[in-house]
Design a protein that fits this description.
About 25% of the residues lie in helices and about 30% in strands. With about 500 residues, it is α+β, with helices and mostly antiparallel strands.
């Protein structure tokens, strides 16, 4: 019985094989006939509409192709696993993921695992990085790897090799981090000179947006020296390269490269209302990223130099009040005691025009220049004081809880007094002066909306201590200082805010 069944099965299998062979032969003949018939069907033009491409256009296309081929193998996908601490978030509060979503966007693919209710749930997020040495050092963003679990950083290369990466170090003040994978003869990139980057220059962004591996986009450098207020750190350094090359969630940490394949920036953030690309991307200049990475690799931390000044930008009104021919430089709002700046002879009210020979026009630019140095370096500083330029020399020191060049609010926001300025004041008693740490001044008791004082940023509760470097002890002193000027003149006020921040504010007496 069993043998009979076996024979039937064998015969059945043979029959099926014959049927299959006949089916394949028949279909092959059928498709062959269809194919023969389709020879009469014509689709598409016989020749392209454009038979000649200019050499310059073809060269540009070839340049993009060459950059993609050369750089993409050194770009990596970074998958980070993190387990947030248990946090009670009230209704309407911010979730622990808000910082990641600030950088990655609200649609970023976070993946929550099914954990017992009440326990923190591990999360995964994707970012990018770029290999900068053949033995596996990778530069990425701090916000990509921040909060990663132990052994929670996984790196995937273009050839699909995967590695567990070690965190070498992070620097929240620049949003740069370094991780390392164990390897040899790995593909790695050339680092360019971001100080030589130009607005209008072609650039290419490479990364893993929305988990779409190794995406290449192109654009130009739209602006340099952008300060967009995303590094939420007291000493944050923002001097971003702005580009219209498409950058989306997941691109963070990937390279921005020029047409010679040199990395000029590390893609970091986008300006968006939706969490996705809307035309503006921002990259950390590679000169900053390189300096930070070298410190992290060699020392495990960043040896951050400082000069010890609080600074602000200078607009037209402030320039007029200072006696400058045109807006330029940065205004020294205050100088820390015993700091390199004080030792070098820099005073509050000075305007820093050049730092180490580089012309300075914005506060964040000076921050970046200082950050590119090392403790112990000497730097020449050209200042404007009392209508004259002077040269000073400062010896940078390592920051230890001090401000290396902090932005103390734009000097474009200023204050004045009296009705023409929209300001009311009163004399300050000793207790008030002691509270502000001041020896003299008058207190702002009211600011009229839409007035000069209001528009320049004066607030109720500010203490005005001087005008044009002349001490103000009473409301009468302030009235005299203002009355001594005519409409259109600008005056430089020193004020101490309710937060005990001393700064200069310039106000222009309105035309009647």
């Amino acid at each position: 019985m069993t043998e009979l069944i076996k024979r039937k099965l064998i015969y059945g299998a043979g029959a099926l094989a014959v049927v299959a062979a006949v089916f394949v032969l028949t279909m092959g003949l059928t498709f062959g006939k269809i194919g023969d018939t389709r020879k009469n069907v014509k689709l598409g033009a016989a020749a392209p509409p454009i038979t000649h491409i200019s050499a310059s256009v073809q060269d540009l296309s070839n340049a993009f192709i060459s950059v993609a081929k050369a750089v993409t193998p050194a770009v990596v996908q970074i998958r980070v696993t993190s387990t947030p601490k248990a946090v009670n978030v009230p209704n309407g509060g911010n979730s622990p993921n808000d910082m990641f979503k600030f950088f990655f966007g609200p649609d970023f693919p976070f993946h929550n695992f099914n954990m017992p209710q009440g326990k923190p749930e591990p999360e995964q997020a994707l970012g990018s990085g770029v290999i900068v040495s053949p033995d596996g050092y990778i530069i990425t963003n701090n916000h990509v790897v921040q909060g990663a679990d132990h052994d929670g950083i996984k790196v995937t290369l273009l050839d699909r090799r995967t590695f567990h990466a070690k965190l070498i170090g992070r620097d929240p003040t620049t949003d740069v981090a370094v991780i390392k994978i164990d390897g040899s003869d790995l593909p790695y990139v050339a680092l360019g000179n971001s100080d030589s980057a130009h607005v209008g220059e072609w650039v290419v962004a490479i990364g893993n947006p929305f988990g779409l591996d190794y995406t290449v986009t192109q654009g130009i450098i739209s602006a340099l020296g952008r300060n967009i207020g995303i590094i939420r750190n007291k000493y944050g350094i923002e001097d971003f390269i702005q580009t219209d090359a498409v950058i989306n969630p997941g691109n963070s940490g990937g390279p921005l490269v020029d047409l010679q394949g040199r990395v000029v920036g590390i893609n970091t953030a986008i300006a968006t209302n939706t969490g996705s690309y809307e035309g503006y991307g921002f990259a950390i200049p590679i000169n900053i990223a390189r300096h930070v990475a070298m410190d992290l690799i060699e020392h495990g931390k960043v040896l951050r130099p400082y000069i010890g000044v609080a600074i602000g930008d200078i607009d037209q009104t402030t320039a007029k009040a200072l006696g400058l021919k045109e807006p330029g430089g940065v205004l020294v709002q205050s100088v820390e005691s015993n700091s390199p700046a004080e030792k070098g002879g820099i005073k509050s009210g000075d305007v820093i025009l050049k730092f180490d020979g580089v012309k300075v026009d914005h506060a964040n630019q000076l921050q970046a220049l200082v950050a590119s140095k090392a403790p112990g370096d000497k730097a020449s500083v050209e200042i404007f004081r009392n209508g004259k330029t002077e040269d000073k020399t400062v010896t940078l020191e390592e920051r230890s809880g001090a401000s290396f060049a902090s932005i103390s609010g734009s000097s474009g926001n200023s204050s004045e007094s009296l009705s023409s300025l929209g300001l009311s004041v009163q004399d300050a008693d000793k207790a008030t002066l002691d509270n502000y740490g001041a020896k003299h001044g008058v207190v702002v008791t009211g600011v009229q909306p839409a007035s000069e004082a209001y528009n320049r940023g004066v607030q109720q509760g500010d203490l005005i201590t001087s005008v044009d470097n002349q001490p103000i002890k009473t409301t009468g002193d302030l009235e005299k200082a203002v009355d001594a000027h005519k409409p259109g003149d600008a005056l430089l006020f020193r004020v101490i805010t309710k937060d005990k921040v001393s700064q200069f504010l310039a106000l222009e007496i309105p035309q009647k």
